[in-house]
């Protein structure tokens, strides 16, 4: 493989740190050409010392260091333009990752996409830009990476279901009556994955799986009725496909994000991982149906996937606001779904094609959600 120049967005986060590990382990395959963090300046400067050729962007506050030459959200877009990267890993959290995804594709750069919100908000636009600029769109989200590899070289007509597995989060076995007393720390304690705070809360409410249903619908162009969610507490099976003959095919590996990141970075090649890999001997794999009463965020996401138009944008915007409010202890855990449900009661039938229109609906959903949060937290 020719050496690839890699730009990491969200380098101070969980996806970013895992991506750096892959770069460090493969110095003959990858050159790090740029890094972006939002607020964590010290980690950005430390990485900058380790990788002196990488351009540095701190997007969330002013830096006093002359090593950091890009700043603000416009700085991220300029960094992408100047980076001369072959592949961008987008590990930014939330809707703020959308414009960088668009910019990377407009610059003709392959996109390794962890930022699921890009597909949830603007799936059609992202696919259009990837095809227009002849760029690879490589899913990094573990389930979608699994599905991408399972579906590769298979005719779409032979696939009857995409089955996304879900750990069920920390409250899989908790009684619904006890949900009111859930604390932030309990919700952050994911049973199988080590991830950032926002996605960890989303896993606890199963909004993460909800976003992933929409992400899968957008990435793979399957009708929502063909997309299923299956609880699998061990997180070894990352997803399955069912073919028309009703057989199942699964991708199975340790719950370790370095694998999907490595697969995206090396794509279309595939390399053996240098760490301990999964041995199934002695392992128990369990599966069960999700409980939609306990996890209304999953039910709402299926409804949004069915409705389409701007409702996935509203689902995401309201959930982002509600999760932040929960993390700041402004609302209880159970209000996350209430905020989202309330926001979705508004009209989201607008059809959007452009990023600006998408971001206007995103903003509207946040305003509606914030108003409701204020009333709830009085
Ligand atoms: N973590 C995981 O294993 C997985 C994550 N994902 C997805 O990947 C994305 C990143 O998740 P994760 O790494 O866990 O999140 P983290 O919270 O760990 O990291 C988020 C990164 O985004 C940066 N950031 C935060 N706000 C902004 C902003 N407004 N503009 C630009 N950058 C910003 C942070 O910078 P700083 O810290 O410097 O403020 C940090 O580098 C999410 O979309 C998530 O759903 C998908 C599958 C698995
Ligand atoms: C690692 C990854 O891809 C996460 O999105 C993971 O799926 C979260 O776990 P849940 O299945 O609990 O949402
Ligand atoms: Mn996932």
Write a structural description.
The protein is an alpha/beta fold and 378 residues long. The chain folds into three domains: 4-139, NAD(P)-binding Rossmann-like Domain (Rossmann fold, 3-Layer(aba) Sandwich); 141-176 and 184-293, no CATH class; 308-377, Orthogonal Bundle (Rna Polymerase Sigma Factor, Chain: A), CATH 1.10.1740. It has helices at 14-25, 41-50, 72-83, 98-106, 116-132, 142-151, 184-188, 197-205, 207-220, 258-266, 296-307, 311-327, 335-344, 355-376, and strands at residues 4-9, 30-37, 55-58, 70-71, 87-90, 110-113, 137-139, 159-166, 227-231, 237-243, 248-252. The protein has a seven-stranded parallel sheet with strand order 4-3-2-1-5-6-7, sandwiched between helices. It has a four-stranded mixed sheet with strand order 9-8-10-11, covered by helices on one side. α4 runs parallel beside α5 (116-132), α5 (116-132) packs parallel to α9 and α13 (335-344) packs across α14. It starts with a strand and ends with a helix. The mean pLDDT is 98. Manganese (II) ion binds next to α6.
């Amino acid at each position: 493989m020719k050496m690839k120049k890699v730009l990491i967005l969200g380098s101070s986060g969980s996806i970013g740190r895992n991506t750096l590990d892959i770069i460090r382990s493969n110095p003959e395959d990858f050159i790090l050409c740029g890094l972006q963090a939002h607020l964590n300046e010290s980690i950005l400067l430390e990485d900058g010392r380790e990788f002196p050729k990488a351009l540095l962007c701190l997007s969330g506050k002013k830096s006093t260091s002359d090593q950091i030459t890009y700043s603000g959200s416009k700085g991220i877009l300029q960094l992408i333009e100047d980076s001369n990267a072959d592949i961008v890993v987008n590990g930014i959290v939330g809707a703020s990752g959308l414009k960088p995804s668009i910019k990377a594709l407009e610059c003709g750069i392959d996109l390794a996409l962890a930022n699921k919100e890009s597909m949830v908000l603007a799936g059609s636009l992202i696919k259009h830009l990837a095809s227009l600029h002849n760029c690879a769109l490589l899913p990094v989200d573990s389930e979608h990476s699994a599905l991408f590899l399972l579906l590769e070289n298979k005719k779409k007509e032979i696939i009857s279901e995409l089955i996304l597995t879900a750990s069920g989060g920390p409250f899989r076995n908790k009684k619904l009556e006890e949900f009111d007393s859930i604390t932030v720390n309990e919700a952050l304690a994911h049973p199988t994955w080590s991830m950032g705070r926002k996605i960890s809360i989303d896993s606890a409410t199963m909004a993460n799986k909800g976003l992933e249903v929409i992400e899968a619908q957008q990435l793979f162009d399957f009708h929502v009725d063909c997309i299923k969610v299956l609880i699998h507490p061990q997180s070894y099976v990352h997803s399955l496909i069912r073919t028309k003959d009703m057989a199942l095919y699964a991708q199975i590996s340790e719950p370790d994000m370095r694998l999907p990141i490595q697969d995206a970075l090396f794509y279309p090649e595939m390399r053996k991982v240098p760490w301990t890999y999964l041995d199934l001997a002695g392992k128990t794999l369990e599966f069960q149906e999700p409980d939609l009463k306990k996890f209304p965020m999953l039910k709402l996401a299926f409804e949004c996937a069915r409705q389409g138009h701007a409702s996935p944008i509203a689902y995401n915007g309201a959930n982002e606001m509600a999760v932040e409010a929960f993390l700041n202890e402004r609302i209880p855990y159970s209000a996350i779904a209430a905020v989202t449900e309330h926001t979705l009661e508004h009209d989201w039938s607008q059809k959007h094609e452009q990023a600006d229109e998408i971001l206007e609906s995103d903003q509207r959903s946040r305003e509606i959600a914030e108003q409701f949060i204020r009333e709830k937290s009085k």
